[in-house]
## 1
Amino acid sequence: MSIKSIINSITHSEDWWACWLGFSFFILTFFNIIKIVPKPKIWFMNPFDAFTLDIISTYIILIIIFIVFYSISIKMMGGTPSRFIPSFIILSFLGFFAQLFSQQYYLNAYGLEYVVWALIIGLIITNTIGLPSFLAPAVKTELYIKTGLVLLGSEILFSRILSLGIQGLLLAWGVTPIVLYISYKYGTTFLKLDKTLTILIAGATSVCGVSAAIAIAAATKAKKEYLTLTISISLIFTAIMLIGIPAIIKAFGIDYIVGGAWIGGTLDSTGAVVAAGELLSKEAMEVATVVKLIQNVMIGVIAFIVAIIWTTKINQDPSHKPNLLEIWYRFPKFILAFISLSLISSFIILPIIGETTLNSILKINGGMRTVLFSMAFLGIGLESDFKSLQKQIMGGKTLNLYIITQLFNIILTLICAIILFG
């Protein structure tokens, strides 16, 4: 690979632009240019109760900032900003409606998060009228998700990882690779599933659901249908587990700290982990959140390992042996940005500005991730159809893989949580 092609990749590839955009949005929050990311309020019967003039105006300002930065990236990648901008505006407000549905009091209580509604809205649109031409230019699903994952890196603070000591590390980093390996072997050896689909489901089950699946999908160059199926299964069972696991903890009188560690190690979404932990106690929620954050570190590690294995063995061209440059070319660059932003937040920014100020920045970053992920899941729905999903279910084998390995994950994590936190 020549120097010219490397420079061209850095300035024109989606993977690199996810890095530049993620870092740019973090810098904007750090320098207090983006001060708040609004979301609809909880509402009961009237959805208009979720709105205020301030919420609407600040959301519009955020979308304008996004339009400026994403239009630059679209132009550099060879797209047409004039077609992208109106499409992006419509998509962003559809994403806002997905957040609105998730804030309905009863739906919110049952853990039906905005990503579920965004996916549903997208699926309904594309399976009734098809993907509208006026929306297509803004359906940049991977770009939005990768940008959001880069921002997620800033929330992985090593001080929080160390706050639970060796117990938290053993639970999050000990169980995760075991579940991943067993899941992959079960799917490929006994169920005879496609290796790429299997590693996506295994990653979603063992690490962090959607985020892990997306990172691994980028590392393996997985089909979009595989990613959509994995995400759909993960979201459905996460909603079930959000209600079910806290209910089991209460019914069997399990210590709430043990329960919090159990929740953090098993639920596939950070938002669901926080919600489930809060159903027990504030302390349980804090333990659950830290365990999940420790586990999230594995996203970058596993994606890195999977990228090397898929490049050198699974997807290897038998006519030649891949070299380091080819591995680098195929490696998902946003993982490097994810890790870099974690290190910068932990060891440079935190000592300078303190935890309180950094937490306010991370809260804004989390709000931006919500906006980006809502549009991303709309895109996933808009690019999927029920017929392709039905084909990918493969006679129930994918559900079999997820359910069996998730049960294994639940049992093993509970045993370890009792031993380490009991």
## 2
Amino acid sequence: MMKIISIGMNHETASVELRECIAKEPDIPVKALASMRDLEYIREGFFLSTCNRVEALVTTENAAEAKKSMITLISGLGNIPRESFSSSLYTFEDADAIRHIFRVASSLDSMVVGEPQILGQIKEAYAQATRLKASGVILNRLMHRAFHVAKRVRTGTGICEAAVSISFAAVELAKKIFHVLDGKNVLLIGAGEMAELAARHLMTQGVSSMAVANRTFDRAVKVAEFLKVRAVSFEEIGAQLLEADIVVTSTASPEYVITYDRVKSSLRKRRSRPLFFIDIAVPRDVQPEVNNLENVYVYDIDDLKGVIELNMAHRQQEAIKAERIVEEEVVKFEKWLKTLAVVPTIVSLRNKAESIIQAELKKSSSAMGELTSAQEEAIRTLTRSIVEKVLNDPILYLKRKADGTSLNTYLDVTIRLFNLDQDNGDTE
């Protein structure tokens, strides 16, 4: 029997140091999907890698072996010994796996409940799975239902109404350090979506100036024009540290962009002015040792949890409604999944009916004489219509029994009644 397995780690089960071992390579999802496609016990696969989670969703006929294969795969992708991360993994099967992906897509399992970015990330990961032909009938249906559930949750609850996000939390944290942000200078390193969101929040708080640095200068210029701020080159970051009060970093660099030595060399000229780093990148952009310097404060994505919790009361209330929607959809999907057991018998039944139609039309052709194309099509339509109506009740009955304990008995009876087993000589 086919099983659905979800295995991975997220912000609650694994530290940022562990998660960034997997997330630091941009082509990890492609490598994962390519490997999953070749694994003996994996039938279909989906792989998601974000700053807050790394997880795989697979279908298999051997759950134990599939889990072993996926743990080995994750170990190889991140070059991490199995014993270093096995305790940080979560595993869900069947209904629990279905519920998990529905909750993730609906942002009920996010660090910030209700944040919209995760759905886009899942859609992108699913697109990769389909392009690489890693997904199939079950995961295709499951992912489309996950998108449907996310839409129901978004439109049917107020879970997205409260202004909480990683970027918003970063700004709240800056306000706790400086009390007010009027007159502060901001350096934005990286020009992705997260950085842009943080910049917009900061602009509403009255910061006096902002500079945007990006490894690709054209992108920095584009974002700077949109925000109506200055663009600077990546090579100017050292000089910009002399003026900045707040530095928001969100790049995809596998190496530290802000090092201990770089910050230390700027402190004397800063004359003890506090310098606040908000590192929302995974892997981290700021070397952790920077936090040891006097009047320098470094907060990474895990440090934002406390700020986020202050903004969650409204969304948690709405999450109760969202969880009900998820449960309704889990039941519906499980019911569909169980109908897959009757599909081969239904297909065989329809195929046999079609072969009988073709054989009888061929036998009757001489008796009917010369017919026009329209007459032939009318006879075929009539014949198929009669057969469909005869088969309709048995097929509906089998589908209704799909989630019952006696399904195998009904399937066996159907196979014998209609003589669908070609190897069975018993035609009584």
## 3
Amino acid sequence: MFNLGLRLRVMVGFALISGSASLVLGGWVYLTFQDLERRLIDEALTAEVQDYRARLARNPASLPPMTATVRGYLLRDDRPDERPPELRSLPEGRSPVSVGGVTYRAAVVRAGDATLYMLHDNSAVERRERRLLAAILVGIAATSLLAAAWGWWLAGRVIAPVRELARRVRERPPSDLDTPFAEGLPHDEVGELAHAFERYLARMRAFVERERAFATDASHELRTPLTVIQGAVEVLQGQGDLDRLTRARIDRIARAERDMADLTATLLMLAREQRSDAATTADCPVEEVLREVVGQHRHLLDHKQVSVTVDVREPLALTVERPLLAIAMGNLVRNAFTYTASGSVTITLEGGVLSVADTGPGVAPQDLNHLFEHSDRSRRATRGAGIGLPLVKRIADRQGWVVAVQNRPEGGALFRLGFGARS
């Protein structure tokens, strides 16, 4: 109903119902009054006609009545026609007529060899009808206003529990999952709704506890083996008697360990509802992280004829956790390196926007709007390449950044990560 509040909708509904009922009742009263007035006038005309006919029978020279409300005319063949022109076309019976700008109710009857015209002035009746109509309209307006006021008051009483429940939900801190919603509310539909909220919160509480337990376990159980792997890789890399193939495999393990460590840290940060202020006190240099992730993923271009250009036109520093920035940019770079079989990858940092352009196969037009979703369609579009691009979208949403993709006219895809007001 035009986005009106519930209380206002109830008030308007009361006013409309009351106004409609008053209009119907007022119309019935007005029409009944008109019919009654017409019947009374016809009875008065009948009485005047009968009285004059009786006088005419006693005295043929008797003149028709001529008072303030009744005017009579007698038409005889042996006398001149004194009727007003408006009466000459009137048929026998009762009918309305206007004479000299005045409305009359006319009765035309035969009286022997003469025709009698008896007119009753309707001016007073019309004035009473206008006053009645005005009174009805004022009554309708007053009734509608009173109904609206009463509806406003009643709606306030009725929806008070709903507003109280809404206030409790609105003001409830996310950490408070134990305080009952239904306490103090009536045992009706609103109370049932509050209990439904409580049951839902109970399920949410269990879910949150499972998530917290998982985050805590992941923080300890994943970091410990990653630290062990990192230490072992550093020891192996320090040995000088390794052959080229073995060293390449150890370097691959080191890259995988760094990727896993950054991904674990990023997922744990995203699992927290609020950012850690201690982790974001220092500015993170975007160029330094960018060149780091490019070097980290350059192995994907081994045995490919692909040139990489990193063009930092405007240095930029962000107040952001370094793993988040590294994962966001690293996934875009890795995506370009993975799907570009030949040609070039151009990475540009300018105006607070990171652009990654490649000469790969591009993205199917029907998949452009679904590339950053956690869905089967997104996995098909990226050929099952994991959570990379949806994870970039989660990080961007958390930080207030904007990520977008489009196909290049000359071929390939262009990803943009705009750092916005946080740059």
